[in-house]
Each structure stands twice: as C-alpha cells, then as structure tokens.
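Sharing a chain and its predicted structure for anyone who wants a worked example. Both blocks are below, sequence first, tokens second.
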Amino acid sequence: WDETHFGKMGSYYINRTFFFDVHPPLGKMLIGLAGYLSGYDGTFPFQKPGDRYEQHNYVGMRGVRLCRLFCAFLGSCLVPFAYLTVLELSKSLPAALLTAFILIFDTGCITLSQYILLDPILMFFLMGAVLSMVKCNSCADRPFSASWWFWLSLTGVSLAGAMGVKFVGLFVVLLVGLNTIYDLWDLLGNLSLSLVTFGKHLLARVLCLIVLPLALYMAMFAVHFAVLNRSGPGDGFFSSAFQSQLIGNNLHNVSVPE
C-alpha cells in the first residue's frame, strides 16, 4: 500500500502536480528524481496495491536488482554505515563484522529496501547522522581540523535529511543534541581551555548543527513549492491566494483580495 502511496507522489513531482502530505518533502522528491533520471515519465496511476507496472520504467525507483538503484542502494548503505559506526565505537573488528552480518541477513531491511518507500531513505540519513557524529567525536583531539569540520558539517546535513524525510528524524536530532551538550559540558570543565576557545566550539556547533540543518530544511520546501506549480489534489489545503499561483487552477492569475 505504501509503495502505491509514495510512488504516486513521485509521479506528482515528475508531472509538477501540487499535492499535500503529512511528511516533509525530501523523501518523495528523491523518489521522483530517481524515477525521472531513470526514464520514468510519471504516467503510471498507482491506483491500488498489486497493479502490474507493465511497460512503465519503475526500476529506477524500485531497486530490485543487485542493490544498484535508488532505494535498494540507500538500504544497502546501512551495512557499511553500521560496520563503521561499531568499529569506531568499539575498536573491535569482530563486533563490527557481526553488526554488518546481522543487517545483511535481516529480512526486514532487505524487504523495506526493495520497494518505493520512505523507510530506506530515512534510515540512510539516520545512520549517516550517527556515523558522522561518532566520527566527529573521534576527532575531538584535533578540533577545527579539516576532518573535524567535515564530519561536523556532514552530521548537520544528515540531520536535515532525516528531518526532511519524516518527522521521526527528530529522535536522531535529540541524540546528536544530547551528545553535543555532553561535549560542550566537558569542554567547559576543561580549565586548560580559554573562554574564547570554548566560544569557538559553541559557535561551530551552532553553525553546523542548527543553522545548516535549518537552512537545508527550508531549502527543501523552497524546491518543493518551486517544482509543484500545477494544480492538483492538494490545492484545497491552501489559501485562495496560493491557489491562484498554480497553473490549471480555477483561480490561476485571478486577482485575490488580501
């Protein structure tokens, strides 16, 4: 059922048809982009679960072969992400390998990753945020180095991605936030650091973990509204003034009093 739901929304992006959904737009936009780049023309109706795709080129959105394509590729990335995270935390190769094998043979992950769903996209950004956070922590002995900035910024990008797919991404934001509070508290208690240096640490985290994710999150909606410029099933959720900007709407280009 969910594949019918989100596949249809991918088609909406390809056809630039406005719609409304409870989830943020990033996951559906990426599904639509994957379909567009693989030659899907957005004409499949996605009317009910189990409909045959027939001649429609669905493969770019529903990666079912060799984990090469979009959702399957993102799902397959969970294995190296988990391996690297556990290896960094435990410094134990057997523990990291065990973690990777558990995910490789997890039927749930395999199943979720082969359909047009938001789940593999969400898990990709969740795991990416955790891995980046752990890698940034490992660079604590060389703050403000290129690798430290890279992993800190990548953590912020991953947070924006997780929040941009589903609001459940707030949980990884909470995790990174608690980790950041712990780091800053530890730095504040380090009497060998000046307040100026501590201020630099605080500012770096504000920029990379608050400002950057918020900017990216807002940019997703900017792209969402720029792409979906044609009248569709989501018109009624918005004001008449907004509907007047949608091509094909009955109010298009009509002067609407404020």
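Comments welcome. Residues 2-238 form one domain.
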